[in-house]
Design a protein that fits this description.
14 strands, 20 helices, two-stranded antiparallel sheet, 12-stranded mixed β-sheet
Length: about 500
C-alpha cells in the first residue's frame, strides 16, 4: 500500500506525453451502461466494427495502417524538421569513428569506451581511436558467470520456483551491463586498444555464445542447489564443484572469443597520431587504464578523472536525493555494487550541460525504443502521433511506466552537445553505437521533452553537482529487488 506522501508525490509528478489528462472511465463507458460481463461478446465486437467503419477517417486509417509500419505512417514531419543536428554547446572532441556493436547487447561497453577514448585521444594526439570492447566483454562474461554461481550458492535454501531464483535463472550471463560494472572491469582488468584485441565473430554476433553459456549455467545452478541441499557438503566442496564449472565456462569463452591479453603483461601499441607521426607505446592493460587518472590525462580531459564518475538517475517512484541500489545485481564478486543517486531531471540536466561546457562527453541510459526512429536518428515525444491514427493516447507517466514495467533502461549512448535557448535545453546530440547507417551517419538527436520522459541515467563528474548530491553517495542505499526496472541492464 502506498504511503500518503508517496501518493501525492506521484499525482504531482504525473506527466502526460500530450499534456492532457487521461479520459475518465465514464467517458469510455458512455451513457449506455449494461450489466458487467467477463467475456468478449461477438455481437458487441460486430457492433463496434460497424460503428468504426462508418467513419471515413477510420477507413482511411485501415488502408494505411494495415499495409504499412504504423510508426512510419504516423511520423510527424514537423518533428523531423525541428530536430536538426545544430547545437550551441558542443564538446570540442567527440571521438571518432562511429562505433558499431552489431548483433550484440554491448551498448554499455561501447558507450563507456567512447567516453574513455576521448581522454586517450587528447593525451596521444589521435584523429581516430577505439578501445577494445571485446576485451571487456570477455572478462565481463567470465565474471558474470562466477557472480551468478555465487548467487546460486548463497540462495541454496530459497524456493526454486520463487521469484528470486527464477529471476536469477532468467538471464545469468546477458550481454547488458551498467556503469559500475564497467568501472569494476576496468579496475580489475584495465583497457586495451581495439587493434590489439579486435572483435571476433562471437563478440559482434553474441547470440549463440550467450545461449550456450546460459544453458550451462542453468545446468550448473541445479547441480549446485542439489549439492547444497545435502548436509554433508561443506562450502569448500561447493567451491570445488564451482571451480570445475568455471573452468568449462572459461573454455567456451576462450574458444569463441579468443584468448585476451593478460592484464599484467606488457602489450605494445603501435599507431600514427593525427600528424601522421609513428608512435609505439609499451605498457600493460592495467597501467594503460591507470593513465586515465594521471595528471596529464586529467589535464587533457578538462580536469576530470574518469574513474571518479558516478551515476545520477531519475526514478520518480522514489524519493529524490536518495541512494538506490539493486539487490544481487553486479558482475564482479567483492567489488563495487550498482549505485544510483536519485535526482530530479533539472539536477541531472544541469550537471550534463555543465559537463558539455567543459568538453566532457556523458554516458547515459534510456529507453531508446519509445517515440524514436532508427533511420532518421530522432528521439522525440512528438515524433509519432498515435492519437491521430488510433484516436487514443499512450498516457502513462514516467513513474507509472516504471511501476508497470512498461519502460526501463534498454540502451546506453553518449551525449556530446546540447542546444540551449533562453537558458533552457531544447535538444541534445547523441553518439550511438549502431554504425554509420543509423541516424545522421551514426549521430542521433534527442528532444529535451524525450529526455524528461525516457532518460533514466547520466554518469557525471562530482564537480558538476552540489555537495548535497555528492553526499548522497555516503548514504546507506535503499535496496530495490532484482526484478525492479532499475535493475535492467542496458
Amino acid at each position: 500500500m502506498e504511503a500518503e506522501g508517496s501518493k501525492s508525490r506521484l499525482e504531482r509528478d504525473y506527466v502526460y506525453i500530450k499534456d492532457k489528462p487521461l479520459d475518465k472511465m465514464s467517458q469510455h463507458v458512455g451513457k449506455d451502461v449494461r450489466p458487467y460481463s467477463p467475456t468478449v461478446s461477438i455481437n458487441t465486437t460486430q457492433q463496434w466494427e460497424k460503428e468504426l467503419m462508418e467513419d471515413p477517417k477510420n477507413r482511411l486509417a485501415l488502408s494505411a495502417l494495415s499495409s504499412n509500419d504504423a510508426k512510419a505512417v504516423l511520423t510527424q514531419r514537423s518533428a523531423t524538421i525541428a530536430n536538426t543536428q545544430n547545437f550551441n554547446i558542443k564538446v570540442e572532441l567527440e571521438g571518432a569513428p562511429i562505433t558499431n556493436q552489431r548483433s550484440s547487447g554491448r551498448c554499455w561497453l561501447f558507450a563507456a569506451t567512447n567516453v574513455f577514448r576521448v581522454a586517450i585521444m587528447k593525451r596521444y594526439n589521435l584523429k581516430e581511436f577505439e578501445l577494445s570492447q571485446a576485451y571487456l566483454f570477455y572478462w565481463d562474461k567470465l565474471e558474470k558467470a562466477n557472480y551468478f554461481l555465487e548467487q546460486i550458492v548463497d540462495t541454496v535454501d530459497e524456493d526454486l520456483e520463487g521469484r528470486l531464483i527464477q529471476t536469477l535463472l532468467g538471464g545469468p550471463v546477458g550481454d547488458g551491463g551498467q556503469w559500475d560494472m564497467v568501472a569494476n572491469l576496468v579496475e580489475k582488468y584495465g583497457l586495451v586498444p581495439q587493434s590489439l584485441y579486435p572483435d571476433s565473430f562471437n563478440a559482434s554476433s553474441s547470440g549463440t555464445m550467450t545461449s550456450i553459456l546460459t544453458t550451462k549455467l542453468r545446468e550448473y545452478a541445479l547441480e549446485l542447489r542439489q549439492l547444497g541441499s545435502r548436509s554433508s557438503n561443506t562450502k569448500e566442496s561447493l567451491g570445488a564443484a564451482k571451480k570445475k564449472m568455471m573452468r568449462e565456462i572459461h573454455l567456451i569463452l576462450t574458444l569463441m572469443l579468443g584468448p585476451p591479453p593478460n592484464p599484467d603483461k606488457d602489450m605494445t601499441w603501435e599507431f600514427y597520431d593525427k600528424d601522421e607521426k609513428f608512435q609505439s607505446f609499451t605498457t600493460t592493460p592495467l597501467k594503460f587504464a591507470g593513465e586515465l587518472s594521471s595528471q596529464a590525462s586529467i589535464k587533457a580531459n578538462s580536469g576530470t578523472n574518469i574513474h571518479d564518475l558516478f551515476s545520477l538517475v531519475n526514478d520518480p517512484r522514489n524519493k529524490y536525493r536518495q541512494l538506490l541500489s539493486v539487490s544481487r545485481l553486479g558482475n564482479i564478486v567483492g567489488m563495487r555494487p550498482v549505485r544510483y543517486v536519485n535526482v530530479d531531471m533539472t539536477t541531472m540536466k544541469t550537471a550534463c550541460i555543465s559537463m558539455l561546457r567543459s568538453n566532457i562527453p556523458i554516458f547515459f541510459g534510456s529507453d531508446v525504443g519509445k517515440f524514436s526512429d532508427r533511420t532518421s536518428g530522432i528521439m522525440d515525444t512528438d515524433l509519432i502521433d498515435y492519437e491521430l491514427g488510433f484516436n487514443t493516447r499512450l498516457g502513462l507517466s514516467k513513474a507509472h511506466r516504471l511501476m508497470t514495467h512498461e519502460s526501463a533502461m534498454t540502451h546506453a549512448m553518449v551525449l556530446t552537445a546540447v542546444h540551449v535557448v533562453d537558458k533552457k535545453p531544447v535538444r541534445w546530440r547523441v553518439q550511438n553505437s549502431w554504425g554509420e547507417t543509423s541516424g545522421s551517419k551514426g549521430w542521433f538527436v534527442m528532444s529535451d521533452r524525450w529526455m524528461d520522459e525516457f532518460v533514466y541515467q547520466a554518469v557525471v563528474d562530482p564537480r558538476f553537482v552540489s555537495k548535497e548530491v555528492q553526499d548522497v553517495l555516503r548514504q546507506k542505499p535503499k535496496m530495490l529487488p532484482l526484478w525492479d526496472p532499475m535493475g535492467a541492464l542496458a
